[in-house]
Amino acid sequence: xxxxxxxxxxxxxxxxxxxxxxxxxxxxxxxxxxxxxxxxxxxxxxxxxxxxxxxxxxxxxxxxxxxxxxxxxxxxxxxxxxxxxxxxxxxxxxxxxxxxxxxxxxxxxxxxxxxxxxxxxxxxxxxxxxxxxxxxxxxxxxxxxxxxxxxxxxxxxxxxxxxxxxxxxxxxxxxxxxxxxxxxxxxxxxxxxxxxxxxxxxxxxxxxxxxxxxxxxxxxxxxxxxxxxxxxxxxxxxxxxxxxxxxxxxxx
Length: 252
Ligand SMILES: NC(=O)c1ccc[n+]([C@@H]2O[C@H](COP(=O)([O-])OP(=O)(O)OC[C@H]3O[C@@H](n4cnc5c(N)ncnc54)[C@H](O)[C@@H]3O)[C@@H](O)[C@H]2O)c1
Known about the structure:
8 helices, alpha/beta, 42% helix, Rossmann fold, seven-stranded parallel β-sheet
């Protein structure tokens, strides 16, 4: 991919999928703004990347903080061409009958409303870009039943949000797409001993994902090679959503 001369803002860029995405876009020529609640880690990665990178503290729960992150990108580099919303995540949630409104709202705010805040803040800048694109990171949880209902419902919301934005802002040339990862080896699995090994056999391609697998798909959807793709959700999932053949008929 060639992102020379283009400025990308990546949320959740301090760790995991966001960090791999920021690094990938940077390696492909973009100037990157790493927006993350963990400002120290984002700063360390930006320092590692060099002058075409800048970190900014950003909490996607907070409108002012998100607006300020976009303002930092504009002030530092004068433009914004690409927005990649990766910040999100889940926490262990109780059974639906025990679920509190507070937990529901917290997860919807982090995984759906926070992305809306980022798009809302970025739109005026994206409109000025010649080839703007937005890529949102969802999850296979937003496409099929894997439990974690509040997280899953919020991630599912991203797909229809992207479709609506794609139609509404298509005439402005702004593309909106979603990447839905399966299980990816990041720190979120560190506390669950043996989980990745247990999940591996469910993946037809024989492994869980690496952050770079997701970064590659984001880079494609953000690039000019995807110039006529908008409003889609792309599973990047080692085949786990392809079907239950092996679970239902292990003998076949
Ligand atoms: N790891 C997986 O298996 C997996 C699978 C599907 C989808 N995802 C999604 O991918 C995204 C990244 O997950 P990851 O595994 O890389 O997690 P991670 O914890 O490694 O990275 C998440 C990043 O987001 C930042 N962040 C969290 N809350 C924030 C907030 N309120 N404001 C700003 N930044 C915030 C964190 O500081 C961190 O840098 C999430 O949206 C997650 O739901 C992950």
